[in-house]
């Protein structure tokens, strides 16, 4: 049980003393970057899906008409 207690103490010490937390401004900037990247990747995937779906529908119309 003392190993677990040491682990908890060391974890708390690391979080309290060794970790550098971002400032509010840095956190907002990082959040905007992640949000922008997420929207960009979402649009790219939607566009690829739209093009692939349109291409397959065109191909099916040609083959099965």
UniProtKB/TrEMBL annotation:
Q: Tell me where it mainly resides.
A: membrane
Asked whether the keyword Transmembrane is assigned, the reply is yes
Q: Where in the cell is it found?
A: Cell membrane; Membrane
The record's section on Pfam families has: SecE
Against InterPro entries, the record matches this protein to: SecE_bac, SecE_sf, Translocase_SecE/Sec61-g
Taxonomic superkingdom = Bacteria
> What keywords were assigned to this record?
Cell membrane, Membrane, Protein transport, Translocation, Transmembrane, Transmembrane helix, Transport
For this chain's UniProt record, which GO biological process terms are given? Answer: intracellular protein transmembrane transport; protein secretion; protein targeting; protein transport by the Sec complex
TM segments? 32-60
Q: Could you name the Gene Ontology cellular component terms for this entry?
A: plasma membrane
GO MF annotation terms:
protein transmembrane transporter activity
**Topology class, membrane:** Single-pass membrane protein
Regarding protein family, the annotation reads: Belongs to the SecE/SEC61-gamma family.
Function noted in UniProt: Essential subunit of the Sec protein translocation channel SecYEG. Clamps together the 2 halves of SecY. May contact the channel plug during translocation.
NCBIfam families reported for this sequence: secE_bact (TIGR00964)
> Which HAMAP family does UniProt cross-reference here?
SecE
Oligomeric state and interaction partners are given as:
Component of the Sec protein translocase complex. Heterotrimer consisting of SecY, SecE and SecG subunits. The heterotrimers can form oligomers, although 1 heterotrimer is thought to be able to translocate proteins. Interacts with the ribosome. Interacts with SecDF, and other proteins may be involved. Interacts with SecA.
Name listed for the protein in its UniProt record: Protein translocase subunit SecE
Origin species, per record, is Niabella drilacis (strain DSM 25811 / CCM 8410 / CCUG 62505 / LMG 26954 / E90)
Per the UniProt record, the lineage of the source organism begins with: Bacteria, Pseudomonadati, Bacteroidota, Chitinophagia, Chitinophagales
Instruction: Give the gene symbol.
Output: secE
């Amino acid at each position: 049980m003392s190993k677990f207690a040491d682990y908890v103490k060391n974890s708390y010490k690391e979080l309290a003393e060794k970790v550098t937390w971002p400032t509010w401004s840095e956190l907002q900037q990082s959040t905007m970057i992640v949000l922008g990247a997420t929207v960009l990747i979402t649009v790219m995937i939607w566009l690829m899906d739209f093009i692939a779906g349109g291409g397959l529908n065109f191909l099916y119309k040609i083959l099965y008409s």
